[in-house]
């Protein structure tokens, strides 16, 4: 995996965790020039009725807030209140925080995208400074690495040209690779089959398969394949795509998806843009910058990892769900390096589910996993991942949302179901809000927001027990994040959508192109950060303004299926059975 820089500045504050110590050490130097000489304690600085304010506190309040705006947000929030009571009021000035946000974002972008009422400006500014500090470092590192790669290519190119002039043959497959990456790969795979003694047969004129002569197998195969590429390259590509989705049928599987059409990745059904991701090249992986470290979890899965979730608070534990039917828990403590804790499963079971594990959700000690075996399985994190219950959903479970009082599941049969995980009969209600599979969910204690393959987004009022409104789009949503009256979502065409949630009305605000070229499979939004990932093999880090300001792009060797963010830690699941965790360096 590698990264690429966005168009950003270096302006920002501390990164989470390790930089906090640096802030504390630097605060003395930052405040030294602001405070009057000889006043070392907060008691000396604090104004009192008997003494005239002096030094910093003798300045007009507008000037004090302007000076404080150049300190890191972490300092304003945690350090200034300890200096004196008067300076603690700096962190309560909403106008000062808005000016700080404007300086971080720039004058051309709108922020926040949603309603401004009750918006958490201090948290937004703190998160933006942390994000800029961490991820612009990553962008600068990649810019240097890209320059080194270009210089290396310039150095090697004359040697290749001389080799060609000396009469070294160039393989047909290599020449084809310059014209089209996917076609070249197909030729190469056939050549490998011949070299390794695999029996090869060609279709004869009568339609029967005939063995090829050993001496000219490779030449005839190439000619045959080139003719097929010229005549029907599109259908050949469809064949390549279809054979990449493999599901081993099992007599014990009792799920609803036992038919061929159901074995397809539901995100790709009817989506012609899936083929585009196969044409990307895989660049080499860089080393992480000083402010971040990247750990790759050991290869514990034997198939694509569909879902990843950080749980346990502060990103201490990572849960992964895979097409190998298993859910695994990983220890992310600093000294563990990503050690496997448990592979979840009930007594006597050889796997966590009896089908692909597609989604994960958690609330407190409860972890829920949903799969293609039409079940939601419940696990107790405090008891080492012990089995806590089984819910039969009746169809493949495509998305989950855990709330304090209810578990929500969106399924392939167009339903949003509500479950009470404590009850013997857990089903509370099934809602039919859509005309196709429910692909993504978000909720709080008042509302449920769901996105479907029918290109609609529905809003349901939990307290009034009724649907409120539905927004129709030109594409369907695959991922969703909801907080602070803002909803952000990613669709099947690589676009981001923003919505406002106010007074029981879901309103579409904007649509953004941030550079994704395929399905947006994961999204996380907080007041000052926005993370997105896509099957185009990229993860992007943005500031959530309008339009989003992209700080960094991470490139992977396979499509990215999901992400999770907690306490400044980013976990990424990809189709090459790999899970990467980016976190502030300790």
Number of strands: 31
Q: How can the largest sheet be summarized? A: 5 strands, antiparallel
Distance between the termini: 22 Å
Poorly predicted ranges? 7-50, 168-219, 232-263, 272-285
Report the structural category: alpha+beta
Overall mean confidence score, pLDDT: 76
Radius of gyration (CA) equals: 28 Å
Order of strands in the sheet with the most strands? 1-28-27-26-25
Oligomeric state as shown: single chain
* Number of distinct helices: 12
Query: Which descriptor suits the 3D outline?
Result: globular
The amount of beta strand, in percent, is: 25-35%
Helix content: 25-40%
Q: Can you tell me about this structure?
A:
This protein is α+β, with helices and mostly antiparallel strands and 586 residues long. Helix content is 26%, strand content 31%. It is built from 12 helices and 31 strands. A hairpin with a 7-residue loop joins β7 and β8. α10 packs across α11. The two termini are 22 Å apart.
How do the strands and helices of this protein lay out in sequence?
Blueprint: E1 2-5, H1 18-32, H2 42-45, H3 61-68, H4 73-78, H5 80-83, H6 85-88, H7 94-105, H8 121-165, H9 172-179, H10 181-195, E2 201-203, E3 209-211, H11 217-244, H12 260-263, E4 292-296, E5 305-311, E6 317-322, E7 327-331, E8 339-343, E9 357-363, E10 366-371, E11 375-380, E12 386-392, E13 397-402, E14 407-411, E15 416-419, E16 427-431, E17 438-443, E18 447-452, E19 456-461, E20 466-472, E21 477-483, E22 486-491, E23 495-502, E24 505-513, E25 520-526, E26 529-534, E27 538-543, E28 549-555, E29 560-566, E30 569-574, E31 579-584
């Amino acid at each position: 995996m590698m990264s690429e820089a966005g168009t950003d500045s270096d302006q920002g504050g501390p990164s989470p965790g390790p930089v906090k110590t640096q802030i504390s050490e630097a605060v003395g130097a930052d405040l030294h020039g602001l405070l009057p000489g000889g006043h070392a304690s907060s008691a000396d600085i604090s104004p009192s009725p008997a003494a005239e304010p002096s030094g910093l506190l003798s300045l007009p309040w507008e000037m004090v807030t302007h000076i404080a705006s150049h300190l890191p947000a972490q300092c304003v929030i945690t350090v200034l209140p300890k200096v004196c009571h008067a300076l603690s009021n700096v962190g309560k000035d909403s106008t000062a925080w808005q000016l700080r946000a404007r300086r971080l974002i720039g004058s051309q972008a709108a922020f926040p995208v949603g309603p401004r009422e009750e918006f958490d400006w201090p948290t937004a500014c703190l998160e933006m400074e942390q994000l800029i500090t961490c991820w612009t470092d990553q962008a600068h590192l990649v810019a240097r690495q890209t320059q080194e790669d270009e210089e290396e290519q310039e150095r090697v190119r004359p040697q290749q040209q001389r080799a060609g002039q000396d009469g070294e043959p160039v393989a047909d497959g290599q020449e084809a690779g310059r014209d089209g990456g996917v076609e070249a790969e197909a030729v190469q795979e056939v050549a490998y089959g011949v070299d390794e003694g695999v029996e090869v047969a060609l279709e004869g004129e009568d339609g029967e398969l005939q063995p090829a002569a050993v001496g000219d197998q490779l030449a005839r195969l190439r000619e045959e394949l080139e003719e097929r590429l010229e005549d029907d390259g599109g259908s050949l590509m469809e064949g390549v795509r279809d054979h990449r989705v493999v599901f081993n049928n099992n007599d014990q599987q009792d799920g609803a998806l036992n038919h061929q059409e159901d074995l397809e990745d539901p995100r790709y059904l009817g989506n012609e843009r899936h083929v585009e991701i196969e044409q990307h090249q895989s660049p080499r992986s860089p080393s992480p910058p000083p402010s971040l470290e990247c750990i790759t979890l050991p290869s514990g899965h034997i198939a694509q990892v569909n879902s990843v979730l950080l749980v346990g608070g502060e990103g201490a534990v990572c849960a992964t769900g895979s097409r190998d039917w298993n859910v695994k828990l990983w220890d992310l403590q600093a000294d563990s390096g990503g050690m496997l804790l448990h592979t979840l499963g009930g007594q006597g079971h050889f796997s966590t589910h009896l089908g692909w594990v597609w989604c994960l959700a958690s609330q407190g000690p409860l972890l829920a996993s949903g799969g293609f075996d039409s079940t939601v399985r419940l696990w107790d994190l405090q008891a080492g991942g012990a089995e806590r219950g089984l819910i039969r959903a009746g169809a493949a479970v495509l998305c989950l949302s855990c709330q304090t009082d209810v578990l929500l599941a969106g399924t392939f049969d167009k339903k949003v179901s509500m479950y009470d995980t404590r009850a013997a009969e857990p089903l509370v209600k099934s809602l039919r809000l859509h005309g196709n599979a429910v692909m993504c969910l978000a909720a709080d204690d008042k509302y449920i927001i769901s996105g479907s393959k029918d290109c609609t987004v529905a809003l349901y009022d939990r307290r009034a027990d009724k649907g409120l409104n539905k927004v129709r789009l030109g594409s369907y949503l695959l991922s969703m994040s909801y907080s602070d009256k803002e909803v952000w979502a990613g669709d099947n065409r690589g676009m981001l959508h923003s919505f406002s949630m106010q007074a029981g009305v879901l309103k579409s605000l904007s649509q953004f192109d941030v550079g994704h070229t395929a399905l947006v499979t994961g999204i996380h939004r907080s007041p000052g950060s926005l993370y997105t990932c896509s099957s185009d093999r990229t993860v992007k880090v943005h500031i959530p303004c309008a339009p989003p300001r992209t700080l960094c792009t991470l490139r992977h060797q396979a499509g990215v299926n999901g992400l999770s963010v907690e306490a400044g830690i980013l976990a990424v699941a990809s189709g090459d059975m790999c899970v990467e965790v980016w976190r502030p360096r300790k």
